[in-house]
């Protein structure tokens, strides 16, 4: 009884929040200037207002200012804990039966992988999410039993590759998206690993990253041109009334959003960048259609949005991190990313704030 009451209260509160704020959030994260940028004399073009955490201002090359507002803004000093503190309510709602999608969007080198994967000293959203899911499952173990499975895949040139296969050469096997029985999108043949602890998850994630690098001469180069997706499937069973839930959480490190230089636009690189542009704009179109509550949502325009179809829209939660560089050298790409994120969120950026 107590559990049912708590669970329905959680859902009621969650729906109330959705009513108030909508179920799409956009967070912006700016990395620190790196040593090379400092040495080469680049300066920071991004300004934060210490009195609030939803706005930032960019100084353009003609000294004009552009002002942007998001659901949350993280400056260069904000650490992984601070980022996860804002993210955790979104990810943990998967335990209450909601589907969730989290993306990191931005130019290569702006910290997408740092935010999602992190490093062994500074673990990112992926690891912290699993850690939190295990913690809450344990807390609720009197009334609920949860089963957690992870899959990891990559979308490169509109082809899906499994990143959790035992034999790295097997990852080239062809995977396709099929409509599942419950209207969900399934990928038959994709490895789904049951996980019992956070250590095990870390091992799985490392395996995935290793396999991701196979077959490329420069793994950083290749990884910036493919989308990497971690899927967490949560099956829940109530020990009170036997009710079952099944939900999915997708954690996505997107391909770099930068436009390719004119000199590079040929051959393989051209093909790759066309695939990336197509899938990133398809993602933008889907999210903005959802934000503006358009009747037709164009999921089928890319493998990425098709895969995520059952976790985008309806009462699903979506969170996008728009990652930016503070450097004056990246100004053009930074403005592109911020404009993309504003469009996705359906928020137009206003004129610069008046200086005090
Ligand atoms: P991307 O995935 O967007 O290509 P990376 O995550 O590889 O970018 O980040 C590029 C470099 O910047 C890495 O060395 C990373 O550790 C560092 N970096 C990114 N974001 C931060 C941050 N918030 N704080 C400190 N270092 C960061």
Automatic annotation (TrEMBL):
<feature type="binding site">
    <location>
        <begin position="106"/>
        <end position="113"/>
    </location>
    <ligand>
        <name>ATP</name>
    </ligand>
</feature>
<protein>
    <recommendedName>
        <fullName>Kinesin-like protein</fullName>
    </recommendedName>
</protein>
<feature type="domain" description="Kinesin motor">
    <location>
        <begin position="23"/>
        <end position="347"/>
    </location>
</feature>
<comment type="similarity">
    <text>Belongs to the TRAFAC class myosin-kinesin ATPase superfamily. Kinesin family. KIN-14 subfamily.</text>
</comment>
């Amino acid at each position: 009884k107590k559990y049912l009451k708590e669970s329905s209260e959680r859902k009621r509160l969650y729906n109330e929040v959705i009513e108030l704020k909508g179920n799409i959030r956009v967070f912006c994260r700016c990395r620190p200037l790196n040593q090379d940028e400092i040495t080469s004399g680049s300066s920071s073009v991004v300004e934060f207002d210490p009195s609030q955490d939803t706005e930032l201002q960019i100084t353009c090359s003609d000294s004009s200012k552009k002002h942007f507002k998001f659901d949350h803004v993280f400056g260069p000093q904000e650490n992984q804990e601070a980022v996860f503190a804002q993210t955790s309510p979104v990810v943990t709602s998967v335990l209450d039966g909601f589907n969730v999608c989290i993306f990191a969007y931005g130019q290569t080198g702006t910290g997408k992988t740092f935010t999602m994967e992190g490093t062994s000293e500074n673990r990112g959203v992926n690891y912290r999410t699993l850690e939190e899911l295990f913690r809450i499952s344990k807390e609720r173990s009197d009334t609920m039993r949860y089963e957690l499975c992870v899959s990891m895949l990559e979308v490169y040139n509109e082809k899906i590759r499994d990143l959790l296969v035992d034999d790295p050469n097997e990852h080239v096997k062809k995977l396709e998206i099929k409509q599942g029985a419950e209207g969900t999108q399934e990928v038959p043949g994709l490895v789904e690993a049951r996980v019992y602890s956070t250590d095990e998850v870390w091992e799985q994630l490392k395996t995935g990253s290793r396999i991701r690098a196979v077959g490329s001469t420069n793994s950083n180069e290749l990884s910036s041109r493919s989308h990497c997706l971690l899927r967490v499937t949560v099956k829940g069973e109530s020990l009170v009334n036997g009710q079952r839930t099944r939900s999915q959480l997708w954690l996505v490190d997107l391909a770099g959003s930068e436009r390719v230089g004119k000199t590079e636009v040929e051959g393989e690189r051209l093909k790759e960048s066309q695939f990336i542009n197509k899938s990133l704009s398809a993602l933008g179109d889907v999210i903005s259609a959802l934000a503006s509550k358009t009747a037709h949502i164009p999921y089928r325009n890319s493998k990425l949005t098709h895969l995520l179809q059952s976790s985008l829209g309806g009462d699903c939660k979506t969170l996008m991190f728009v990652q930016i560089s503070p450097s004056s050298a990246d100004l053009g790409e930074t403005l592109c990313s911020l404009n993309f994120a504003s469009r996705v969120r359906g928020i137009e950026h206003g004129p610069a704030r008046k200086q005090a």
